[in-house]
């Protein structure tokens, strides 16, 4: 079979979709080619060469088609795709077209649609109105039209069944893989350089992610301040990530003096510094209200960093027994969890060991195998 893979959205900024594709596509291509199938990887014409080399190894780049479709803005990606995808997939004789981007463009091939989450239905208040209305208009139609769905977690699969009445037999699950670039950093020069660059304190709990309401930073800040007042005052909270839509409540809570509460912000941290940041931290706190997966959890496991996270959405599924689980809507629950995480060294060691074991579920090979099995179910059913 000939499989077309839509990767036009990959760009320089780190996102869950980019990480999933960068670490899955090379493995998936090898598996397809080894058994005599042919992959075709569609990218934006502007994809930088270093990122292309990460997505598709140089020896496989004869299988790449550079499209005229821009990564951003979204409206141009959609409009330019309308005449392009049907024509190009026919030209390339694509049997299965695998994509992750709404809306699903009309193509003659059978379609596999990859879904991260439908959190706009859980937390519509965390979206700009224009984005929410767009998703409300196109998501259900896309889910119903796709021949097969791949969800990134069992939790997302349940959402697709419950919200859109999709047949569960038409939905497969393929977890996002851990990046091979993430492991405990042993290079002291690298660690000290990162500590200096971001002005990191000696002992700190780390949050990684976009600064937006569903990440629950307001409750995390409240709980952290309470934990410090309970006798853990030497600890700090470092929040790493770019500002996003709707963070005003966090700034109102902290006022003009977050440093007085032991809280600091790094802004966006590039991939090349993140592993060192995890290594330098004493723990990851990720009490998000809703996630389709939760990539920081597997990054922290890979860097041997103990974890506190939510007992809801896909976070419980990904973390398993390798984290302290808390109620993200209960500040007291988060405070108690932070107290245990910050105060019990033996517990942190236990969580690190369990994280090492759990990480084996999230390899690029396992993800690629799950995707390939989904293709086979669809191809055989023609």
Note down, in words, how this protein is organized.
This protein has 382 residues and is of the alpha/beta class. 46% of the residues lie in helices and 15% in strands. The chain is built from 15 helices and 13 strands. The chain has helices spanning 16-34, 49-55, 74-91, 119-122, 129-145, 154-164, 188-197, 217-229, 248-254, 271-280, 295-302, 313-319, 331-343, 345-358, 364-380; strands spanning 2-6, 38-44, 64-67, 96-99, 110-115, 148-151, 171-173, 204-208, 236-240, 263-267, 283-286, 307-310, 324-326. Strands 3-2-1-4-5-6-7 form a seven-stranded parallel β-sheet. Strand 1 (2-6), helix 1 (16-34) and strand 2 form a beta-alpha-beta unit. Helix 1 (16-34) packs across helix 15 (364-380), helix 8 runs parallel beside helix 9 and helix 8 packs across helix 13. The longest helix has 19 residues, at 16-34. The protein is globular. The model has no long low-confidence stretch (mean pLDDT 91).
Strand content: 15-25%
- Give the rounded overall mean pLDDT: 91
The profile of the biggest β sheet is: 7 strands, parallel
Helix content: 40-55%
Low-confidence stretches: none
Question: Structural class of the secondary structure composition?
Answer: alpha/beta
Record field, number of beta strands? 13
N- to C-terminal separation? 12 Å
Number of DSSP helices? 15
What is the CA-atom radius of gyration, in angstroms? 21 Å
Shape: globular
In order across it, which strands form the biggest sheet? 3-2-1-4-5-6-7
The succession of helices and strands, N to C, reads: EHEHEHEEHHEHEHEHEHEHEHEHEHHH
